[in-house]
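Deliverable D5.2: sample structural annotation.
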Amino acid sequence: MQDSQGDEPEMPRRDLDDRLFWLANEKEIRNAQTTDAYFLHTKEVLQKNHIDSRVVMEVFARDVPYLDNWGMLTGVYEVAKLLEGLPIDVWSFDEGSVFVADRNSVMYEPLLTIEGRYVDFAEYENPLLGLLSSSTSVSTRAAKFRIAADSKLLLSFGTRRVHPALAPMVERACYISGFDGVSNVLGAKLLKLEPSGTMPHALVQILGSQEKAWHLFDTTVPKSVPRVALVDTFWDEKAESIKALEALGPKLWGVRLDTPASRRGDFAKIAEEVRWELDIRGGKKVKIIASGRLDEENIAKLNPIVDGYGVGTAVAYPPVIDLSAKIVEVEEGKKSEFRAKRGGLGGRKAVFRSPGFKDTVSLDTGKANRGGSLLKPLLKNGKLVADFQSIDDLRARVMKDLDELKTTTPSLQWR
């Protein structure tokens, strides 16, 4: 409706008051403002009624959404920074640890244990689980891809599918779990890597010519960037691969096949065609990189012929590792009582590992019994006491574990 003078009515302002995007900043996360309301209600009840019982809480996964029974824990560093300064003690598996989850047993491995007054950390349960679940879900799927790809090049291409605020987390989790490179610029910067990637279909479409796109890329982009030609924009992959070799000759490092699943038919046969046509024209050194809705089964079929993979949505939006946090002990007076909810298991637990990821969970009867447990001190009265490895050292340790997992089936028992 127009006003009496014919002017357009003023539209109500719909911008957010204090930010551009619907995301929490670091301060809000650190102050537990992203928690759920019922934690605040619980804290208010306890405080106003002068109840300050100490508790032991465990964070765990009862199963993983895969046929095998293991996951890859990441996000521990962020949890440490979240809880740092609170008057609590925290123990945790190391960042990048393999954990075992047996869906056929009531037993679970506590991945992180918190001891302290519940009122001091109640509101942190929500962001704590979010940090661990998000990162662990990505790193677990990334680890599955690393094993499936064997020694082939593996690149993370998936951050366009997630909220931009989460991009560095996705790239970190992928790199720790064995990916060789990441495409996201900020993610790579924080990891101290050069971002991976060459060109999108958009460049070829704008120029209207594959050859022109490849030539301009070659004459414009720094020589340190491998000359990888995207070869499925307008024509058949085989035809464009031949043209790319003719256009760039010995400068052609590789070709990337990004054909969507709806059009590619048998991807392995297409890759075989490309390999043959390149080889007979003197392009035996040209690598074939596959991308576009890949999963572990696709990669297993492509491994004999393909040299590397760009994995996107499958790793950036993986099946969720459903982590839970439950109280297992509550202090009454000067005595600590085992107290678990229905379906839970009371008592603080320790986790011990034998070679081959043969894990044993037992009741932790005291500090002396914690020696050798996979649960190591993370915070002592709020002070960070863990010694975190560098990203590269962490990745090297994870890669060693993944090599072992290729021939080992983890197991979980309890006593």
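Annotation notes: The longest strand covers residues 323-332. The domain at 148-316 is CATH 3.20.20.70 (TIM Barrel).
The annotation will be released with the project's public dataset once the embargo ends.
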